[in-house]
Write a structure and sequence with these properties.
homodimer; alpha/beta; Rossmann fold; 14 strands; 42% helix
């Protein structure tokens, strides 16, 4: 068996990566969105990275995988007593990674090295790789102007109508050696675009110069898994944003977002009727259960996606 | 009644300031040592300020007044999981003030303004004033070289033999308008050097250029309260340090440290025999119970010290 690379972010992405990790362990690399990173109280928060670390290490709260289980809020309560910000709930445990990340970045360590160190400490054998060590910040263009993704997501509660996105800093961001090595690996078996918002989770990763080119080399099949089931985002605002961008909020529309980049697309059984439309655009389609409610769902979907990639790879070999 | 100024730091100092605060409320200003401040994980810790804020606001743990009551360590435990420093216990609640202080300093606010804001938020009507807004750092000269006070106190557990102290940055530190106003106040009634280590708590305050001059103007009696009772420091390493500096570890020796700066000295009943020696050096002496075990002890000692100052003031008026 070869190596597998996942492009990921958000909770849905973390769940599929967890399934892949349970199957492949150290032969998995996850390239994680950092466009949603932000600074708060001078600390560097990397929500997509931390969610994935919590999930892969088994620390995550089952009900709220973006934070460690048994979270408490003693620091936050005291912060309020001292006149600190009232609006954002900072869990005690959730502050640990940002605090250490901030300190190590201040000591001139690379975000990638810090994240890999976190993996080692937590006993995660897969490689969790930030999409870049440079600052890329996703901004949401709304009818009232441009706001950071973090402000859109928390303060504005995803309410303003979205007109577009802006990935500030992306044009100057550099691929890291670790990301290049993972995507350029001789034994690369599959690249999986995890079920996550295509605009502010997967797209920022693709915006890092060189990332699309590495994918287009087609060293291995590139498979995307839909974040939209039955016209609804499983979690988050993907469907809302798609309709505001005047796109159909559907799985097949997500496939079009990845046109010329992916070989295969995984849609939910609920959307099986749309499979032919996607196939018509030259993308192979797997219909599967994409809703991951249990740990078994995660490994089942991961297994199905990897088998789908192998089918595509074998067909390619036959055609060659 | 006029205003009272206390020079303070450590737990003993905070206890006496608390007694003074219970008697005088908003007519009290506490000038606090910041020579023990340090940076850890990019956060700015001001232990003497925070201890005083916890004590005056009633938040302090009775058993460990340098931290809020009901302290927890969820963040610290998670920090260790992520490979963070193992040696220093960071309480969840105790991190709130450093975190907010760091953020507000980064936003170019003055340490004094931040501390006064904390007072307002916590409902403390007295003014808690850092000795300066500038960085002064106390270093301990040991036989093995110079170490920061923080390292001496925590990592080295006060073990190396002390040869002296160095107050880095003191020569360039500036008095704040708030400290000048407090010591220059027309209705100043007493200045009290609280029971605290003379070398690394009271002395750094005195090293801020202009501080000694303001005290020597003698706008009001200056009274010091001994931190040494029966040859022992009530808490901390004062007695150990004094003997290593080849000084007698005694209350009267502390009085000599403040020679020409103080008008009166408060020693414990246990040390009453040493009173004459101190008086011989031209300092008036009050013998009192200086050991503050209960809240009542704090106000009783504060009341005795203020009465002592009034006696000195009245005698001066008679002599004038």
């Amino acid at each position: 068996m070869g190596t597998v690379v996942a492009l990921t972010g958000q909770v849905g992405g973390a769940k599929l990566v967890d399934g892949l990790y349970r199957l492949r362990g150290k032969d998995l690399a996850a390239i994680v969105n950092t466009g949603d990173d932000y600074e708060h109280l001078t600390l560097r928060f990397s929500p997509d990275i931390d969610t994935l670390l919590y999930v892969l290490s088994g620390m995550a709260s089952p009900a709220a995988p973006w934070e460690p289980a048994g979270e408490s809020h003693a620091l936050y309560a005291t912060l309020k007593q001292f006149g600190g910000p009232q609006e954002l709930t900072l869990g005690d445990k959730s502050l640990a990674a940002p605090l250490l990340r901030t300190a190590w970045l201040a000591a001139d360590r690379r975000l990638t090295a810090i994240t890999l160190d976190f993996c080692r400490q937590l006993g995660i054998t897969a490689r969790v790789l930030p999409m870049t060590d440079d600052a890329v910040r996703t901004y949401v263009l709304t009818e009232d102007g441009e706001v950071s993704f973090q402000e859109y997501f928390t303060t504005l509660a995803c309410e303003p109508v979205v007109k577009g996105f802006h990935y500030a800093g992306a044009e100057d961001a550099m691929l890291t050696p670790e990301v290049s090595d993972a995507l350029d690996s001789a034994d690369l078996e599959a690249v999986i675009l995890c079920p996550a918002n295509p605009y502010h989770t997967i797209r920022p990763i693709l915006e890092v110069p060189g990332m699309r080119e590495l994918l287009r080399k087609r060293k291995a099949p590139v498979i995307a898994v839909t974040p939209i089931v039955g016209g609804r985002a499983l979690r988050g605002s993907a469907a809302k944003i798609m309709s505001e961008l005047r796109h159909e909020a559907s799985a097949r529309r997500v496939a079009l977002e990845y046109l010329r980049l992916i070989d295969g697309f995984v849609i939910d059984a609920e959307d099986a009727a749309g499979a032919e439309d996607v196939r018509a655009s030259g993308i192979e389609v797997l219909v599967a259960n994409t809703v991951m409610r249990t740990l078994e769902d995660r490994t089942a979907l991961a297994r199905a996606v990897l088998a789908f990639a192998q089918t595509i790879r074998e067909r390619r070999l036959q055609e060659a």
